Structure prediction request, 258 residues.
Amino acid sequence: MSQSQHSLNYIEHDSPMHRVYPLVKLIWVLLVAIGLFFYRTPLSGAVMFGVILLTAMIFARVSLRNVLSSAKLIFGLGLLLMLFHFFADPGEPVYRLGPLTITDGGLREGPIFFFRLSVVVLASFVLIWTTHPRDLMVSLNKAGVPYRYAFAVFLAMRFLPLIQREVDAVKAAHSIRGRAGRSGLLHRFKLWQRYMFTVLINGLRKAESTAIAIECRGFGAYPDRTYMKPVEYQAGSLLLIVLFVVLQTGLIVAERVL
Prediction:
């Protein structure tokens, strides 16, 4: 079993982050994402990334192994976005790579966008690791979201690890048959095409089975759900939002002053 199979799963622990009300954690992720758009230097993004990483390891009790197994997803998209800005942002040419030109503006803005995306992805992973999908659905419903839409969020979070396991199973099958890990780039690209086709077909099958099961149980026939597991709100959960709002405000003010 590969390590990456667990990167998008809820991790059951008794930690301070696990005890935070699910809707508060969702608002926390949104506030972190909004605050990143006010940063003007990559240093603030790096500080925020380090703080969330420590939050995951200390206050959520997520092992370093789980964090490292998710590094490709956390850093991969951020690196692609940073490289794009290296070449796309206007500015004075610094280095030429064939028809492409790296500018000083790209070198300045690229790391900002790298941390902007990486921090959001890591914070979202902390939400997934510490929040049971059912609890998030119940908290959204208590906040006034119709249970049909809240259930859609529940399904999305439940399908993420299922799709990841499908990808791992298909990759393992191809590796056993043809040692895909040692093949060239062109062959790997063709393999990824096959991965996506297989995962898409299996995903559609699971979605159809889920839809049939929902219909058989009469989901949506009544205005209110007949049963929901109770999820209690505790005022101490707001401390998470307060601390990060203070931290983000301090970073923004420090950038303007210094």
About this structure: The two ends are 49 Å apart (CA to CA).
